[in-house]
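Suppose you are handed a protein chain with no further information: no name, no annotation, nothing but its sequence. What can you learn? This example shows the usual starting point.
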Amino acid sequence: MGTEVSFRIILEDNQLSYQYGNLAAPVHVKKFEAGSLEFKTISLLATLARNKQLTKDQLGILGEHLYSVLLRERVFDKLTDVVRNAKAEDCLVRIELVFRGDDRSFFEWPWEYIYRPDLEGEDDINMFLTEDPRYLIVRHLFKEDYRSSLIDGDEIRILFVASGPTLNTKNKKIKFPPIIYNGIEKVLTGLSSEPAANMIPFKINLSSLIDMPTERCTIENFIDKLKTKPHIIHILAHGRFNEESKKGEILFMKNDGSEDWITGDRLKILINDDKNVKLIFLESCETGTMNSLNPISGIAQQVSDINVPSVIAMQSEIVQTDAHLFAGVFYKTLFEGRSVYSGMKEAIIAIRNSNLKDENKNSFGIPVLYARDEGVLFKMTEERNSQQVFSVSANMTAPSNNNDDNDMKTAEDQQKIIEELRKQIAALSAQTSFTSPNTEGKSPLQTKIEAGNN
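A reasonable first move is to predict its three-dimensional structure. Written in structure tokens, the prediction is:
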């Protein structure tokens, strides 16, 4: 995929508009009635979708309603023209959704499941737009004083946080499924340790905070890790929407191993002091009750409010294998020097292809991206590229009889590693996700582990 173009759709004060290219002002399309039967239907279907109660066909019905709100009339005609021009240049079209005004219900709808219905005389029909490689749906957070996503200097600092019970802690004080973090940690470690594992001319510095008996994933330890001034923060944890406080929460730990739920407001305050943060990846999903607002999207919105250029989150429950596959492909693409948008699209395609084997899995619409700018983290200059070539050459060892010592991992090798990790994670998790415990207070994975130990 080549460069990217944006097509902006704006919902503000019951007015639908679109904006493309260098237009001086948005083009107004129509007014809509927020209290209509269609909107009530979308809200109901969206709630069922968040709680994994819709089949793929039923998701298509939800998607058609979302399509009718945003893309009917003149909007899709204009978007089609944009796509036609972009296709000739192999461009990715970003459909940037901008929500303004007091009504926040639009923000919570799962727009990633927009479905194009059967239209007479059209070729590209009956499909989710997210599944089409030409489109990417983005939640655009408009601010006049947005922070640039470009990373200054020659070093990329990543903070990886695995918060919650892991397979190594055997923690019986909290009743949540174990966090399986090894797969994505190995991907990040591989990118930071192998000079040829990524194509960007930067040094990658990875620091980790993983809940273990030797170092708890407490909020105090998290604050201490923030002193490394990370550019990228990846948090792998459980999330929920607290019905009493009406706030999204993410699970950290206490020193005694019990749970410590942190609100998005508090997380936002902690990170707000560091202007270096360019990307926050929330690899978490909902474990709350039915009919609640989306917990991780809520946290993502709160964190995004402090001007972080890009925030990735999971808008409903997702199988851990899919979440790790998504993250692994995203980082691989990102560290090829491509944008956050390209990484997002490649990762969505990866889990979409994985889901083809199971009609009941629709994870391709779960990841969401909240963004402000062009999503370019690395400034790739000719001087930097020449330095990267020199750096790789300098790290190559002299020939020997041991081919294993000579070979450097290529991008293809790295992809094989990711695929192998995905298989290992699948064997461990056995299709479990970040779900709430059963009536006995045990997750499916905990039950299997204990059965194996007895």
